[in-house]
Amino acid sequence: MNPRQLWVALVTIVVKEVRRFTRIWPQTLLPPSITMTLYFVIFGNLIGSRIGTMDGISYMDYIVPGLIMMSVITNSYSNVASSFFSNKFQRSIEELMVSPLPSWIILLGYIIGGAVRGLGVGIIVTAVAFLFTDLDIHHPFLTIMVVVLTALLFSIGGFINALFARKFDDISIIPTFVLTPLTYLGGVFYSIHMLPEFWQTVSLANPVLYMVNTFRYGILGVSDISVGPAMAAIVAFIIGLFAFALWLLERGKGIRS
Asked: What single-letter DSSP state applies at residue 194?
């Protein structure tokens, strides 16, 4: 296939994925905004007024980057996991697999589609956040870069989950028992400096901590970890997981009987 045909194929898959979640926006875009509003009201206004400041920043402002990142992570992941598994279950993915499309185009199309949903929800949550606080973004380029990379990373994770899943229940196991704990323990609501030294060290093994803190540094200018190594780790994870997902897809993992 020539480059133009590859581009048309990629855009077609992305548009299909975007239309899939925008068509049912009351189920895909509205619930996260309501959930995050509750977080801002309960944790920001009610509890935050009692906590005061965190690292010299008001608690409401401190949790905003973490809540935005949490919404991006969960929605990027769940979009690809549910979409690709649905296509597996309906066996419509076989039409793509027997087409002359290279596997990397199929993979990239689903990943971009998931990232678009994650970023879309992130924008909605950011708009909601400005109803409760007034933030000045310290490093705009870094902020955009880390949120885009995070959306891509967890879209790949959702794709891998969908490949291994054998039934619909399987696509909720990882988000429930792995993704949610890592997110809540990733410094969304607190600074790891509040923890005992042992648990600070344990927290450093949580990859979500690096994404949340890098994003927080981009917005607020404060972070519990070094930003440079964190960005390098995110890029390395993307490259590694993309290669792994492509390897699985080309071998028909979870697709071919």
From this structure: G
